[in-house]
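Appendix B. One record, verbatim.
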Amino acid sequence: MTRLTVDIVSDVMCPWCYIGKKRLETAIASLDPSMEIELAWRPFQLDPTLPKEGKDRRRYLEEKFGSPERAGQAYASIREAGAVEGIPFDFEAIKVSSNTLDAHRLIRWAASAGDAVQDRVVERLFRMYFIEGKNIGDNANLLEAASAAGMDEPVVRALLDSDKDRTEVLQEIDTAQRMGVTGVPCFILDRRYAVMGAQPAEALARAINELAAQKNTA
């Protein structure tokens, strides 16, 4: 059996990261069943300047794109790519552009909460933001995501009310940037080979298979 780790540097307010997640899942499903893939979600913040409560979405889009109309044009290709991957993006439902630092703390805790819990939390956060339009910087919504994924809600509530792992998440983001990660998603295969961007599933599968072949012949 070949074992490989895939670290996904991602931000849950990044639509291409959601697309990248679906493409990675397709890639993994196409691999030889004897190959074991261990996934780990790593933090990144597209906009760390956003306040804890987030920012009015219309104002945010005006500042970033000049107008909501221009944002709509920019998101057209994202909608199209999302539809192919089964993601019904609803950008109009998003009322608040979220600060994702606490979401990344939750994702970090989910890694030690049981098998596949971290992936379930990430999926739920993506859906909450891009399909349901919820503020994923809000503690109530983070608790909902944690509970839906099977985490201990009272424990998560206490952790969110503290500064637990805030520094560690920021340090991990800084490490990714110093490694050269300037955009997300970024897939780090076996901690030594990076695939940048939401690459097609075929490209991800090919990269994983090539690395697995290298390991088997080493």
